[in-house]
Specification:
This protein is mostly helical. The protein has 15 helices and no strands.
């Protein structure tokens, strides 16, 4: 929870700086935001390359039927959750007609004190294609040396996120809110913040309720009992903010629901890296809210958001265990497919991190449903 407190401190500090500090000090904060933003842009393709390649190369062997069922259920759950989020947000968009915008640098003539560019090594789609080619090749050809390279590259990027980028995000977000304070748009933006976060939390529980009610009816089990057994995993994930760190509790909860040991031991750890329905709900909801607030973007219909959702379910494979890993993995799609600029990315990160623990809790609780269905079909060829 310390990250959330630091995030709040960054927002408050940025607002105070924008209202009360002289322009030169605001430009110092803005310069820090620009530098951190350049580092984030540079890191995005590396996140996609190493995490997806390592995740695909590390998929377990010798359990083809369990693997295909787990991946199929997990991906289907993620895509459906994102699709429902788009439908819900589009249904409520008319209530936000005339919403204010949040981009302020041009309006206040804030300039960076340092002109610096850190170009990415490759584009987002190039990184994605490379990750799939090498990940599948390493897996099929059994190349342990290259597997070690992708794993070690993942560890380096994970350390960069955990030790540098994530701790620097409060300063990054402070720069954005200092801009909004100078432009006089911060109050309306914060009110929209609260509405979006509440909407995401409500959709998490609507989604979980639908999953457990449908599964309980079809499997002839009590939905309340199934969900009650998974609550320890839900609350553990709120505290850890990591699906991977919650695996021991998720395993115990799934076995309490009657999932066979061998199925639970296989599906729960795998779902911790490939099933992110809660994170998808939040990312889609927050992304559409940011587009609603942005002057040069409009909220697209479902048919335009569907390719983004389909790709989102892929790029978040093996998202890093550090808080905010899912949104960091998704930034490449936000910039390349939805046209997010630096200010939109900053607001997106702030929105997502404010509820990261609840999105993770939704993910791991949904893992229990995936385990139930894999268990149901585990004996069938």
């Amino acid at each position: 929870m310390s990250l959330i407190l630091k995030l709040i401190a960054g927002i408050v500090g940025g607002i105070i700086a924008g209202f009360y500090l002289p322009m030169v000090l605001v430009e110092v904060l803005y310069t820090a935001k620009v530098i951190i933003g350049q580092l984030i842009s540079f890191t995005i393709p590396l996140i996609i390359l190493f995490f997806i390649a390592s995740g695909i190369a590390g998929l377990p062997k010798g359990s083809g039927h369990l693997l295909s069922k787990t991946v199929g259920f997990a991906y289907g759950s993620t895509v459906i959750a994102g699709t429902l989020a788009v439908l819900v947000v589009n249904a409520f968009i008319p209530f936000f007609d005339g919403a204010i915008t949040f981009q302020a640098a041009e309006a206040t003539n804030i300039e960076s004190l340092i002109d610096i560019e850190i170009p990415p090594l490759m584009g987002v789609m190039t990184a994605l294609a490379t990750a799939f080619i090498f990940g599948i090749g390493i897996s099929q050809l059994n190349l342990p040396t290259l597997k070690d390279v992708t794993d070690q590259g993942r560890d380096i990027i994970d350390a960069l996120l955990a030790k540098v980028i994530i701790p620097a995000l409060p300063f990054y977000i402070a720069g954005v809110f200092a801009e909004m304070a100078k432009a006089g748009t911060v109050a309306d933006t914060l009110s929209t913040f609260g509405i979006v976060l509440l909407a995401a939390l409500v959709m998490h529980w609507v989604w979980l309720s639908a999953l457990y009610i449908a599964s309980g009816i079809l499997l002839k089990r009590s939905p309340l009992e199934l969900l009650r057994n998974m609550l320890p995993a839900y609350f553990t994930a709120i505290g850890t903010m990591s699906s991977a760190a919650t695996i021991p509790v998720s395993l115990k909860a799934s076995k309490a629901n009657g999932v066979k040991d061998e199925v639970a031991n296989f599906s729960v750890p795998l779902c911790a890296t490939i099933h992110l329905s809660g994170s998808t709900i939040t990312i889609v909801t927050c992304a559409m809210a940011v587009m609603l607030l942005s002057p040069e973007m409009s909220v697209p219909p479902l048919i335009s958001m569907l390719p983004f959702i389909l790709m989102l379910g892929i790029v978040m494979i093996a998202a890093p265990g550090a808080p905010g890993g899912a949104v960091m993995s998704a930034l490449g799609l936000l910039t390349s497919m939805l046209g997010f600029n630096e200010a939109a990315v900053a607001l997106m990160i702030a929105l997502y991190l404010a509820q990261d623990s609840f999105g993770t809790a939704c993910n791991v609780t949904g893992d229990g449903v995936i385990a139930l269905w894999v268990n149901r079909f585990s004996d069938k060829p």
